[in-house]
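Table S7 (text form). Paired inputs.
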Amino acid sequence: MSGILQVLVGVVVLAVVVLLWCEARRVVHTPIRLPRGGKLYAVIEISGDGEGLEQAVVGLTRVLGEAAPAMQIVIHDCGLDAEGAAIARLLARDSRRVVFDETR
């Protein structure tokens, strides 16, 4: 009898863990819904040589992939040197989702 009780308790605990995991995943991965015609932007303001820019864009793209697939990523030039601007242009050229704003 106690063996059956242990199995039942184990099943209940497992069910609770699975439910909590599913709920946490739903909350974290809730997509962003915009009103009709609305646009959503993520802006990266950067200056200098653009160190870490590619990693930031790739990470942001990965995070936004499921939650906001239509979100544009804008790289805003706040004083990039020639090397940093070249990196930003390459990132914008290689992805429809990334825009390089060179206005200061």
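Next pair, protein 2 of 2.
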Amino acid sequence: MWGALRRKDRGEDRFEALWNALDRVLTDLQEGFAKKPGALLIARLRESGLWALLLEGPQYRVAEPGVRPARRGGPGGPGRQNVALW
């Protein structure tokens, strides 16, 4: 998910391809085909090349413009981070 968010942040939307892979695994799960849905998802993402694409590149915090990282020990207790839902 974070890889897709970072790609979108750079102007490259990969959410449709990710959604299609998730949707297919959910369908396989409902049909009784997927015994290990997580492993099946990763295998399909690797097969399509999307897995490597989502993992490549620098890792950085993805946020809306103007959202500052939460301070440690601020509201929410020590070590907890404030999360803005949008």
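The chain has a mean pLDDT of 79.
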